[in-house]
Each structure stands twice: as structure tokens, then as C-alpha cells.
Amino acid sequence: MLETLYYESPMKVNAEKALATLEKAKEEKEKGSYETSLTLFREYLSMVDPSFTHGVWYTMAEILFEKKEYEEALSHCNRALELMKEFIPALELRAKIQKELGNHTAVKEDQNKIDKLNAEEESKWDDPNHYYHYK
Predict the structure, then answer these.
(1) What percent of the chain has pLDDT over 70?
(2) Which of 64, 103, 123, 130 is a plausible cystine mate for 73, CB 3.0–4.6 Å?
(3) Spacing of C-alpha 104 from chain mean position
């Protein structure tokens, strides 16, 4: 008989340590200590469930882009987009990375996605019956 994994205990997370590590990573990024920041972001990722880590992957991609490590930056952007498919900042950064890599078709594809998502968002505000107007 096949046993399910549903009964395993949930991932144990030391929330205080994880948040402290995340804050320290952000501080190091602001100071320009990119290697330390990347190390701390990786440590944070090892402590938490990946469900809502798209922002961390995106931030790491930004750092790698600044360091001109385009292939790795692209990989991190793609991971952010796996976690949140319509994450416009990651799409914008990925388009910039693709431009640096000379992948003009990919740049155009990402820009088309961005334009489509922005148009969808704008149409929600233009629709008087959309829930955005009921606050």
C-alpha cells in the first residue's frame, strides 16, 4: 500500500532567525556587499518554504544583474517567475537581462507579456463594476 506524505510534520521554521537573516541580507545589499547579501539570501531560502519567495529570487537576480552575471541572473528571474507567473518586476528585469544577452526575441516576448498584464490591470480600473471600485 502506498503511504502518503501528508502525515509528515510540517517544515520547522525558526521565524525570528529567518526574518533576521532576510533583513541582514537586505542591509548588506543596500551597503553594496553583494556577495554577503547573496549568501544571506541563500541561507534564508534554505530556512523557509519556497511558496512566497519570488521576491527574494528577484532581488538576487537584481544583484547578479548588477554584477553582470547575466546567465545566473536569468536563472534567478526564471525561478521568481515560476513562483509567481505574473510578477511584472521580474518580467521587466528578465527583459533587461535578455537584452544584455542579445536575445531580442525573448525581450519582445517579455515586453508583450508586460504590456498584456498592464492592459488587463488598466481595464479593471476602467470597469465601473470591477471590485476595485468597491472599497
Answers:
(1) 87
(2) 64
(3) 22
